[in-house]
Amino acid sequence: MHVLSFARFRLKTFSAIFERMSRRSHSASPPSRSPKRARIEHLNLDSFKDGVMLAPMVRSGALPTRLFALKHGATLVWGPEIVDKAMLHAERVVDRMWKFASVAFEKINLLNIAVTGVVSFNGKSRAIWTTHPVEKPYLIYQIGSADPEIAVQAAKMVMNDISGIDLNCGCPKPFSTHAGMGAALLTNPDLLCSILTALREAMPPHITVTAKIRFLPDQKDTLKLVERIVNTGISALTVHCRTRNMRDKDRAMIERLREIVDFVKGMGKDIAVIENGDCLGAEDAKRVRNVTGAHSVMIARAAETNPSCFSSTPLVDIDKTLVPAYLRVAKYLDNHWSLTKFCVSQFKAPIVASTKAEDKRVRETIIKARSYDDVTEIVGDWTGENDFKEIVETIEARAAGSLLPSGAAEKVATDASSGTDVQALSRASSVSQIETEVAEEYVTPEGTQNPEPPGSGAPLISDRTIPALISGEDPLTPTPAPLST
Ligand SMILES: Cc1cc2nc3c(=O)[nH]c(=O)nc-3n(C[C@H](O)[C@H](O)[C@H](O)COP(=O)(O)O)c2cc1C
Prior knowledge:
Elements: H1 3-20, E1 25-26, E2 52-54, H2 63-71, E3 77-78, E4 82-83, H3 84-88, E5 91-104, E6 107-122, E7 126-131, E8 139-144, H4 148-158, E9 164-169, H5 174-177, H6 189-202, E10 208-215, H7 219-230, E11 236-243, H8 257-266, E12 272-276, H9 282-292, E13 296-299, H10 301-305, H11 322-332, H12 337-346, H13 356-368, H14 376-379, H15 384-396, H16 408-412, H17 424-427, E14 458-459, H18 468-471
Parallel strand pairs: 2-13, 3-8, 4-8, 8-9, 9-10, 10-11, 11-12, 12-13
Antiparallel strand pairs: 1-5, 5-6, 6-7, 7-14
Helix pairs in contact: 2-15, 4-6, 11-15
Flavin mononucleotide binds next to helix 10.
GO molecular function: flavin adenine dinucleotide binding; tRNA dihydrouridine synthase activity
Catalytic activity: a 5,6-dihydrouridine in mRNA + NADP(+) = a uridine in mRNA + NADPH + H(+); a 5,6-dihydrouridine in mRNA + NAD(+) = a uridine in mRNA + NADH + H(+)
Keywords: Flavoprotein, FMN, mRNA processing, Oxidoreductase, tRNA processing
């Protein structure tokens, strides 16, 4: 057989195999972007003002949740805390695929094109963290650290895929505090500030450095700490309005924040103070800002139960609205099933048009499901690509040159109608009133800040880049072996 025909024959036969082979490949830079895309400026001090932010949440702050939060109006999204050491030996892998382009002069030309474009930082046995270029302009990466040098090394690993880096100074869980991280930093201000200073010095100017703290028991001590932190050159400060010993079920002491906001304003640094604690959504953010004077509000548990809470009209009947779309997008992006199942199991919103029986059926199906295959009846066709495109278009439709979704500033502006109870979601007077009817094993344990040590739990992504029929190696199945759920 002529060598060219043979090559054609092999390509025809093997093109299907190429499709099935690893869709992933290493890449030094994110997938190419459409030239039509509106260019977005880097974050600046104003980017943290007049916003409603998605809080960092281990597990619950997974990539699909962040994308849905952005779709529904979150101004910026924080990723889950990743401990610096976990990232040090991670390998950056992009979801790309080799595709046949042409045969010329007895050479086979292959194109390496983006499939989903998901960027994974792979550890030894699992992805430590995943992101997507579409969220990059709005993405703050949260780091857990007790060492300036390691923090800087870890930050350098991810800085091309993020817009800002945030230091977790509030996690009260022993796995953090025993290692001197999280809330332990609150009582070790020298170390806390040395990490922030090191990050600020090491990061390029367009990467913002921020911190998330809790109150110290004494207000004067808190102000002293805030003064030192602000003087490190951070771009914004988030204050979780609880002390280290307070549990989530304890009401956040938001009235204590105003003095801190005024104090930071008095320092003349023009940085945003972001309130965190007990905010229920976009509408409720007006009340919180009125009480505290904070520039912005950050939401955790209300977004965990409904990532559309950033909209002035959050989704209701989520068994019909949010859940199927979330499942489709999560599958399309290869989000690990157990992580997806955990996130979906947290969802809860008022039932208005659909029935409780239908909602129960969906929930029971999810609880029993051991893989995406088991939820097909909920999602209908697996058209996640279309759902994902819709998310991308919505995010990209944000005003060019602005980091705020259109209408966001108006949405959270403090006005006389603050605290309006128009939205059913906002009617509950505290997050604890949003009950979850899910299997106990998938509920965040009460009083727990981080449900498990940081890490996305996503499967390890194969690093196979060249189709075996070209490289001469035996093809390996790219799909990771199913993990127990
Ligand atoms: C499931 C879960 C995971 C969390 N993970 C983190 C984390 O990784 N980093 C962090 O700073 N705070 C974390 N938190 C705390 C939240 O960011 C937030 O400070 C806290 O829940 C209070 O906000 P809320 O009243 O809106 O829930 C987590 C909270 C929850 C519920």
